Amino acid sequence: xxxxxxxxxxxxxxxxxxxxxxxxxxxxxxxxxxxxxxxxxxxxxxxxxxxxxxxxxxxxxxxxxxxxxxxxxxxxxxxxxxxxxxxxxxxxxxxxxxxxxxxxxxxxxxxxxxxxxxxxxxxxxxxxxxxxxxxxxxxxxxxxxxxxxxxxxxxxxxxxxxxxxxxxxxxxxxxxxxxxxxxxxxxxxxxxxxxxxxxxxxxxxxxxxxxxxxxxxxxxxxxxxxxxxxxxxxxxxxxxxxxxxxxxxxxxxxxxxxxxxxxxxxxxxxxxxxxxxxxxxxxxxxxxxxxxxxxxxxxxxxxxxxxxxxxxxxxxxxxxxxxxxxxxxxxxxxxxxxxxxxxxxxxxxxxxxxxxxxxxxxxxxxxxxxxxxxxxxxxxx
Length: 381
Ligand SMILES: [Fe+2]
Ligand SMILES: [Fe+2]
Description:
The chain is α+β, with helices and mostly antiparallel strands. The chain folds into two domains: about 20-180, Beta-Lactamase (2-Layer Sandwich); about 200-375, Hypothetical protein af1432, CATH 1.10.3210. About 50% of the residues lie in helices and about 10% in strands. The chain contains 14 helices and six strands. The protein has helices at about 20-35, 40-55, 90-95, 115-120, 155-200, 205-220, 225-235, 250, 260-275, 280-295, 315-330, 340-350, 355-365, 365-375; strands spanning about 55-65, 70-75, 80-85, 100, 125-130, 140-145. Strands 3-2-1-6-5-4 form a six-stranded antiparallel sheet, with helices on both faces. The protein is elongated. The termini are far apart. The model is unreliable at about 1-10 (pLDDT under 50).
């Protein structure tokens, strides 16, 4: 922290020296530009503002247009704080687009003293600066409280500096917000598509949910990051999305399929892949791999391409185990659910044949967790 005012870099008694200011801007804009999580960007921005103007507290507020509120996150793991959109100094800045410099908060009618009363903190001076997005709309605001010196009062120079911070960091903030928006939209679409696939294929009730949870456990067991395992969990419900194009007569045929019918059935992998592959989006690409490769077998006897071993993408190998495990353990139109030891025996036999041997070992290690999932998401008859 750089609250000391008279160090070698030569700051005056009121703030950072130009050299210090540049270093702070440089350090933080580099950090912020590399950050993809909104919370981390907000925290970096708050720290940047605080160090630039030597404020005791600095917060970044964002607008939630749907709920007509302003919200902020003060620290990782701490819940959001929310206030109605137009309230307080920060509310004034986001509605008018004007920055504010208030020397004495208590002499201003916009000050809401409730917070101070509750926390025992004494707000003296406040600066608020709006962030403006690329299209000129306001996306949020900085709020700094109390200068870290004897008078605790900000000056117009502090206001200039915080405005500088807002203009440097605001663009990165907007792009991270956009990124999160897109990711959320993708998640919703993927979930909706998975549900369509599920209703179409008439799998037992919670099949795709269980496959998703099993895939997650196997991915973590394999050593994938939590982030990647969560992505796989999100996309694995789409493994059979291609069944939307399979005729009912084949899809719901109670007996054994003829060779032609089976050839048609195999097409669901290719149809699913074609449906998803053209999207450049990360999650869609992942989903396309799962749809394409969940019926490939380790020994090369699977379909549609007859891929071998690690030529089959890990996502395909994981989903294959999750899918088969669930299918064997559930009643289907053409068979009753298998007993657990019969299922385990099959996985031991198919280790290195149908399934990646290493993943079968992980499957066996994680078996208690998989059974808990099976219990939690069991189908209600
Ligand atoms: Fe399938
Ligand atoms: Fe399935």
